[in-house]
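Hey team,

Filing this mostly as a record. A colleague (T.K.) asked me to run one chain through the structure pipeline before their review meeting, and I want the input and output archived in the tracker in case anyone asks later how it was produced. No errors, nothing strange. Just documentation.

Input sequence:
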Amino acid sequence: MVEELAFDNTEERRKDRQNGTGWIEVIVGSMFSGKSEELIRRLNRARIARQRVQVFKPKIDARYSIEEIASHSGRKHGSKPVTTTKEMMELIDPETQVVGIDEGQFFDSDIVAAANELAGKGKRVIIAGLDQDYTGKPFEPMPQLLSIAEFITKTHAICVKCGNTANYSQRTVESDERVEVGASDKYEARCRQCFIPHSDSPTPVE
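Output structure:
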């Protein structure tokens, strides 16, 4: 029997884990909603509990750091940039207990089977990512990860136009590419009423 940190109903708790059973936690929301910050918080808590942790991010995301995951508020945690799910799986140490993955929407579809495989081997898998693209459509493979996760956390931002709860990532530059890596230079948080499912001019700063 192994005692682990689990995440349930927005609170971490101690859990006795039998037969090497792992699980999947998925953190989703719009940009600027605190997804990476929540991921970093959970990873730090796991390290405090002296668990073996490995963290990965897609190599395409080099906005704030090449070898760190970073929140928009400036919090960072060391990570390994990878190009494919296969590359990530080859780097995972058998002794690792917690696997953290940021920007899950940028991974290939194999990430779903990989997460299941890791959880089946008794590992705690924590994945953060956008659940919708810039048009408001589900951003694969996040919907598939949500369907297999034991624990799901939906984070929200604040709409920059009206101050209501924001659930959308508004693109503020002209581009038809589904993957357009950026931060506040290309996106802002919008609520359902203020969101335009393509691109829109940035909200003026008053």
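Quick notes for T.K.: Residues 15-156 form a domain with the Rossmann fold fold (CATH 3.40.50.300). DSSP finds four helices and 14 strands in the chain.
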